Structures are given as C-alpha cells and as structure tokens.
C-alpha cells in the first residue's frame, strides 16, 4: 500500500474520545500488518501497539492514533487534498506523523538495519493514562527517541516541551439572601480575587502560564453562593517554576473571615527537556542532505517526555508540518512530506551505528 493510501485510510477512520480504547486499536489494526511486513514483532497492549525489531537498546519511534474529534467526523469531512494541502480529522495531529513514521521505516529498511522499536498509542489525547506505563517501560530499553507529533507550519522541529499541571481551586463560603451582603460569604467573590492573584503570576517566569478555563459556582439567582471552583490550565518547564507555584498556593487565604479556599494540584505531564547534543546531531543530519532545520519549545505536552525524563536523547515535531490542530480547519503540508521522510531516514542511518549497512 502506498503511503498516500495509508494516509487516506487512517484519516478516514474515527478514533475520537467517545470510542473505547479497544475500538481504536481494532480500527487501526491494519497498521500492525504493515509493521510485521517490515520485520517487526508486534505486541498489542491495553492502549497501544508496541513493535520490536532486533534487541535493546532501541531507537524508538512514537506516535498516537487517536484524535479529539467525535464519531462520524470522518464521514462529515473525509480526507481531501487541495494542491499541497491535506485536510481531514487528525490529518496533522497526528495521523500524518504516523504515515511519515511508517514510510521512513520502509525506506530505511530497504538498505539499512538497526535495532528499532515503534509505539503507537490510542490514549494520547486523554493524557496517556494507560499507555504511559508502556512508554516508561520502553524508555528503559531505548537509546534515542524520535517523536512524530506535527512539525510547525514552517517546518520547525521541537527540541523541548512544557509540562502540564491541572489546578482546581475551591472556595467555600456561607449562604445568605443575595440582597443582604452582611449575612453571607460569597464563594464566587473569593474565587474572583484568587483568579486575579494567580493570573498576575503570568510573566514572572519565562515558561510558567496559568489560564482559568472552567468556572463553576452558584445555584440560585437570589442566594449568596457558598461553593465555587475554578480550573486552571497550567504549563511550566523548569522545576523552580513548579516549586514557586506550590509555595504560592500554600499561602492563599480567604478574604472573608467566614470563607476558606483550598486547591488540588495534579501533574499531568512532565516537561520534555532539551538535549543539546542530540539537537546538534539532528542539525548535522539535516545539513548533510542539504536541509536547514530550526527548533522551538512547544507549549503543549507530549509522550516524548516519558523518554526525555528518563535521560533518553529525544526529538519531537518529526511529523508532517501543518496547523489549526484540534479544529475543523486542521491541515497538513504535503509539500513537506518528502523532506521529513528524508531527514528521518538519514537520522536513523546516523544513529544505527555498526548495524547500519546490510
């Protein structure tokens, strides 16, 4: 099957959040046949396919098969090509990256060989709650990690990623008649003060951001609310930023004497740390085939962090460049496909060592 046929078939398969993980694995099982044809031994895990070729330490290639789009989305707007632009649900994030991964392996293995592992999971958009354990296991057997999340529209690669923190802030007050301010303690007012206080931290550090995205509170229009809560999407990179946030939260206090505030803090994804030596290897690989690449720090988290945090040299953004991810306007740049594949093939040759040439 040609890569463009795999691409179309994959995009036209719904793998959204309303489908059970087993259903996503079943719908994408044809990819295991492709990997087996390339000489991989494929294992089906609870939320991922894991494929091995050779023995550890492996050069590990990772990607995810799930999207954020609901069931029926691919029928409503299937895979289409307009000039050099491909569209469809997940066409960039990251079914296009999976196709680049497979095509790169196919071309590499035609004349080369090395010890390889591939992990394709189906719960990345959910935070990888189950496949995270698979990634930790494979990271302990890997020499390098290549991640195929989308590249930037201009072709930039990703050398590092922020970590993700979930923060819920709760306020408890006292009910009262809404017209009698002295009889109640308004939980929404307490939260309002805290939202202003916490969002004022934005800009204090280069990478720490706090954005309130969900607010709940109040039951009746004429009753002072005694309960309210707000969710913050928090991103960070350095440990000192995380520690600063914790210390700030510990010092929060209510304004009204009959109110109190509390919080829960959950680390959802660790940051992907930059490996300067590996970045230089990628730059050299690109230069050797006449390409120039640049790198950015992504604000979003990714599975590559499981490897980076384990000391495995890692690079991300090797997937197809594009934009408008997680929206109906999502697109991928097909004119960048060959450059991406050529870069990955050359990088695999560079990392292959003595097993490189058959």
Automatic annotation (TrEMBL):
This is Carboxypeptidase G2, putative. Pfam families: M20_dimer, Peptidase_M20. One of its GO terms (molecular function) is metal ion binding. SUPFAM superfamilies: Bacterial exopeptidase dimerisation domain (SSF55031), Zn-dependent exopeptidases (SSF53187). Coiled coil: none annotated. The active site is at 66, 124 (proton acceptor). It comes from Thermotoga maritima (strain ATCC 43589 / DSM 3109 / JCM 10099 / NBRC 100826 / MSB8). Residues 160-254 form the Peptidase M20 dimerisation domain. Keywords: Carboxypeptidase, Hydrolase, Metal-binding, Protease. The lineage of its organism: Bacteria, Thermotogati, Thermotogota, Thermotogae, Thermotogales.
């Amino acid at each position: 099957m040609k890569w463009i046929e795999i691409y179309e078939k994959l995009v036209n398969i719904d793998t959204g959040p309303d489908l059970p993980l087993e259903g996503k694995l079943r719908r994408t099982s044809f990819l295991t046949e492709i990997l087996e044809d390339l000489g991989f031994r494929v294992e089906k895990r609870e939320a991922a396919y894991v494929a091995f070729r050779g023995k550890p330490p492996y050069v590990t290639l990772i990607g995810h098969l799930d999207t954020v789009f609901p069931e029926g989305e691919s029928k409503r707007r299937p895979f289409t090509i307009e000039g050099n632009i491909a569209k469809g649900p997940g066409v960039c994030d990251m079914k296009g990256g999976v196709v680049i991964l497979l095509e790169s392996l196919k071309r590499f293995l035609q004349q080369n060989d090395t010890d390889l592992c591939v992990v394709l999971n189906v719960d990345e958009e959910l935070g990888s709650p189950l496949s995270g354990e698979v990634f930790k296991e494979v990271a302990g057997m890997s020499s390098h990690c290549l991640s195929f999340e989308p590249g930037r529209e201009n072709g930039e690669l990703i050398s590092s990623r922020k970590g993700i923190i979930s923060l819920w802030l709760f306020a408890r007050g006292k009910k009262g008649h809404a017209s009698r301010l002295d009889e109640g303690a308004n939980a929404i007012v307490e939260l309002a003060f805290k939202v202003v206080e916490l969002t004022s931290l934005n800009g204090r550090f280069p990478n720490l951001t706090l954005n309130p995205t969900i607010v709940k509170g109040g039951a009746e229009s004429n009753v002072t609310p005694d309960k309210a809560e707000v969710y913050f999407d928090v991103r960070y990179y350095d440990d000192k930023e995380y520690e600063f946030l914790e210390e700030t939260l510990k010092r929060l206090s209510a304004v009204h004497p009959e109110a109190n505030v509390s919080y829960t803090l959950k680390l959802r994804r660790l940051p992907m740390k930059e490996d300067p030596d590996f970045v230089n290897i990628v730059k050299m690989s690109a230069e050797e085939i006449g390409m120039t690449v640049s790198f950015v720090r992504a604000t979003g988290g990714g599975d590559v962090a499981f490897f980076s945090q384990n000391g495995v040299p890692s690079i991300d953004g090797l997937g197809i460049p594009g934009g408008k991810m997680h929206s109906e306007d999502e697109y991928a740049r097909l004119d960048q496909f060959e450059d991406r594949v050529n870069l990955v093939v050359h990088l695999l040759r560079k990392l292959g060592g003595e097993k490189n040439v058959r």
